[in-house]
User: Fold this.
Amino acid sequence: MSIITVKNLHFKYSSSYTLKDTSLTIKKGVLTGILGPNGSGKSTLLKNILNYLKYDKGVISVNDIDLKKYTFTNLAKIMSFVPQKSNVRSNFLVRDFIILGRMVHLKSKWSGFSSHDKDVVSHIIKRLGLEKFEERSILSLSGGEFQRVLMARALAQEPDILLMDEPTASLDINYAVEIMRLAKELTKTHDLTVIAVLHDLNLASIFCEDLILMKDGQVKFSGKTQEIINTEVLEQVYDFSPKIIEDDSGTKFILPTENNMAVV
Amino acid sequence: MKKRILLIFAVYVVAILFSLNIGAVKISLSDVFQIITGGDVPEYMRIIFFNIRLPRIIMAILIGMMLSSSGVVVQTVFQNPLADPYIIGISASATFGAVLAYVLKLPDIYYGVFAFITSLISAFLIFSFSKSKNGMNTGGLLIIGIAISSLLGAFTSFSIYMIGEDSFKITMWTMGYLGNASWSKVLFLFIPLLISVIYFLYRRFEMDCLLSGEEEAHSMGVNVEKIKKQLLIVASLIVAYSVAFSGMIGFVGLIIPHTLRMILGHSNKKLIPYSIVVGGIFLMLCDTLARNILRPVEIPIGTITAFFGAPFFLFLAVKNKKEF
Assistant:
């Protein structure tokens, strides 16, 4: 069942289109990875789905409703976002920062956060193993710890859809795996739909059920991860020839090779 | 929490009594008590107390509250710790408006109206010029602020020059002056202050979200553009009012929010109310100094706040601050 449909999307920052006639569907309760070389329009697509960037032509619908019909609050109730790197430089306590995700559920802005809001946040903090950081400043955290805090804030919105923009880009491999594992787990336990823009082909292969491969602002391939990963596809998308090996469970691993540059 | 409120209340009482007490005419504490309880004191003392000193103290407090809270808001909107309304040129624009009204020989009431309109226009110019794809551009913001301040400052200076001997009123504006306080002015300031305080408190969570940048705030359900515009309008409104009534008083919106951020953190739920109360008392004490250090000559209050504020600004700029 699809939860998001993108049809013939066009978007430009200035003169030329970054997204050209992009179409795709995202399945509900699935972790979908968006991959592609730099400048292929992955993050731009994600920010259009978030309705942060305003597309010029085409349609995006979420739960079969036109994205442009959602109010800011209603959209934030079903969709939240984990950035690659937060712009925050403010001294918030971890708990105070995470609870901002509950703002969208406030009955009245005067009342402040209810005990239910606090319970939701406590539960998420526990789930993400952030208890020992709760009373610390977000500025004192390491990259991996802070990324989990950003994820906690996004989850505090209790969304149906979680958008992640290269959530593992600046992380050590152990933290990267942890974030991806958590995202996948949530698709199973909470029927959460996760869309993650990723750089790392292997993380995508291990954790994503579906993949969307983009190039030059268009979707080149999409489908079940293990079905679409093959040498020809990657050559076409990335202009490089990988060596692909498969483990016993059928998970494919992509290795770069020295000699096989398809295009120089 | 309760302790802190009590402490602030106590500081307020002591500071107000102290400020009432000293001045060109000394009114002792027992006199103050006599005046309040309707006891036997000379009439001139009662007049100084009720018609001069008390409204002036209250006006200083109100203006301090306005400048300090608008500092918090402007810094949040621009995501920049140096974005005090004075530094980014909003105050200079308000002065320009007030001077324009003076040059056009309009009645006093128009000073505030003109100050409001010009500062609002500047605020939006600054806002749109310093906006880039990834939010606000810090360097650009300061440069634009300086450019606008200089341009409008040139007009103000020109007016002073052309008006000649009668230009004292304008000169006063550029340096800040609270000596013309009155009860009607207090009332006139109180209303916009009240509106802005209510509005800022109402937006405290959105302001917290905005500190994470536009994209993240959007993802948390904040209508970024609308809220930033509204916040700027309200902040400009109160800056314009304060400039129209007291001239350009700089750095209050910089020192107070910053000091409080170091103590309380960045959460606007705490920062806004504390900035308001601390800003009020700070400006009142500055004004008490302005009235008294060279008694009977008064020093313009803007010079006092700049005397404290400029080194503080330097300290902020030099200190490698990762956080905002």
